[in-house]
Amino acid sequence: MLYTTPRSTEDALRWQQLRIGSAAWEGWPLKFQRMAFGYYEESGWLTAAEGLNWMREHDRLSLSTPPRGGLAWFESNDRVTVFCGVGDGRVIGPGVAGVVGLAVQTDLTGYRGWSPAVFPFAR
C-alpha cells in the first residue's frame, strides 16, 4: 500500500535540517517526525513506543539500513525514539539528549528497524 504525506520526503528533511541544534523537541521524537512530514494534529499514538508497536503489529518494519525518508526506530533502556533516514546510513532527529542532530544509524544502540513515514491516524 502506498502512503503519502502532506510534505514530501525532501521537504520533511529540509524542515528537520533547519532545526539542527534545537533542544525544543526533547521527549517528542514522534511529534517531531509527524510535524516534519506535515501533520499538525496528533498521530493517535501517545508515545513513540506505541508507534513502534503499531509498526510491528502491521508488519511495517524492515531491518535493513533506513532509506532516505524512512522512519528509523530505536529502543534502549525502555525508551523508544524515532529518527528519519537521510541516506548513506545517517539519520536525523532529536537524539537521546533531546537535541536535533544527524547521527550514523550504526552508532546508535537498540535499532529495531525502519518503516515508511506512516502516521495512519494523523491529520
Strand order of the largest sheet: 4-3-2-1-5
User: How much strand content do the residues show?
Assistant: 15-25%
> What Rg is obtained from the alpha carbons, in whole angstroms?
13 Å
Task: Let me know the number of strands.
Answer: 5
Give helix % range: 10-25%
State the separation between the terminal residues, measured CA to CA.
Answer: 18 Å
Number of self-contained structural domains: 1
Order of helices and strands: HHHEEEEE
What are the low-pLDDT stretches, counting only 5+ consecutive residues below 50? none
What global shape is seen? globular
- Helix count equals 3
Largest pleated sheet? 5 strands, antiparallel
Query: Structural class, judged by helices and strands?
Result: alpha+beta
* Average pLDDT, all residues: 92
Give short descriptive properties of this protein.
123 residues, alpha+beta, 3 helices, 5 strands, 24% strand, globular
